[in-house]
Amino acid sequence: MAENDVVKQLCAELAHAAAELAPDAPMAIDLELPEPEEDN
Amino acid sequence: MTLEEATAALADRRVSSVELTRACLERIDKRNPELNAFITVIADEAIRFAGEMDRELADSGPRGPLHGIPIAHKDNVFTHEGKTTSGSKIFADFEPSVDAEIVARLEQAGAVLVGKTNMHELAYGITSLNPHYGPVRNPHDPARIAGGSSGGSAVAVADEMCFAATGTDTGGSLRIPASFCGVVGFKPTYGLVGREGIQPLAFTLDHAGPLARTVRDAATMLAAMSGREFEVEPSLAGRIVGLPENFFFDDVDPDVSHAVKHAAEVCIRLGAHIEHVVVPDMERLNVVSRTITLAEAAAVFEPWADRRADIGEDVLALLDQGRALPATAYVNAQRLRKELIANLRGLLETVDFLLTPATPTPAPLIAEAADIRVATTRFVRGFNVIGFPAVAMPCGSTAGLPIGMQLVGGPWRDADLLGAAAALEDELAL
Predict the structure, then answer these.
(1) What separation, in Å, do the N-terminal and C-terminal C-alpha atoms of chain B show?
(2) What is the phi/psi pair of residue B106, to 5°?
(3) Can you tell me the ipTM of this complex?
(4) What's B127's DSSP letter?
(5) Do A28 and B335 touch (CB under 8 A)?
(6) A3/B288 Cβ within 8 A
(7) Highest-confidence range of A19-28, B38-47, B365-374, by mean pLDDT?
């Protein structure tokens, strides 16, 4: 199968898998921001 | 001899580290020309360091259970000793100036590095039929694949060229070769083992872990690699083991299916309760895994995108697919991932472990190993998406080939999982 056909098929499978994904579902990324140091 | 037995023999002065190391190097000399498990053998430095460990043992006792034990690292793990090729022509002459975190930890624990193991190119595949460094062959039948991408590490351990080895696992790359070669491959909880100084493939799916001949040996390696202590209590008494009713026994070799279900009966003998469960979302997890891997790998290797002639055909096709993938697909896969993690976490709150086949078949013939990636990874890669710990270990054999099962635990329950696996290993007594 050509590269683009593989990608098209995967995108279709993903669209099906994500069909019920909530519109406000966040992305699973941890920004790892350090917590502020406590004031002395 | 297992790692645990070697540790005891060293402690009793029945053997020295130099003797163990020489035995491993002799085994590599004898077997590596056929099996091709190693890209680089580090003989002189291994003997020197083993001698240092012997002197230290005599002077001040052992650093721990890995003191003087010969091991190997997968060749995508940076070592200041020798080259780190990642199984790639692009990195053929790469000599890292520093060790990976796990290399430093294992050296600090006294482990002796005998060499760097062969692997699927860039860790992006499951056959370890490497176009640049030659195919890794299965020690149970050299006409068959070893699995991958940590194929050389699994073969080196299975064929007694070293006592344990490191590997990486983005979509089953520790567990698939463990299954095909008849050893233990442990993918820890995401984040338990540091990945600093390991060539990435897909940042948010990559894990590092050990390959060993027994569960206890894998636990010893994991403790050193993670810098944590693990109390491994071999027991399944009172535990609930989930045996999937869906997905995991579809299109599976009958001998594999039989062996895994026999292991479930052994769990009952050990005092566990078997709960028949429906595992949600496995097809969706696999789609998410394939999407994220394509996108992240394409991004990782973008700086070398113009080196097309130096990349094998199968890996190049995947990198091209990754570059052609819309950004929206990657974003939505990551969004869906969060939902799927919550669903699987829910299941792992009702059972302690899931018991599944590790691979749908024993090791395929090299001649029949084209286009098996998606089918061979389908029971393992979903657990990289959710990050839960999973171990592949032998549960039987068919026609002289090992059969591997997979035991999955809840997040950060790696020690529990090792304890359950150790109990099963003892009772199966293969």
Answers:
(1) 15
(2) -70, -35
(3) 0.86
(4) S
(5) yes
(6) no
(7) B38-47
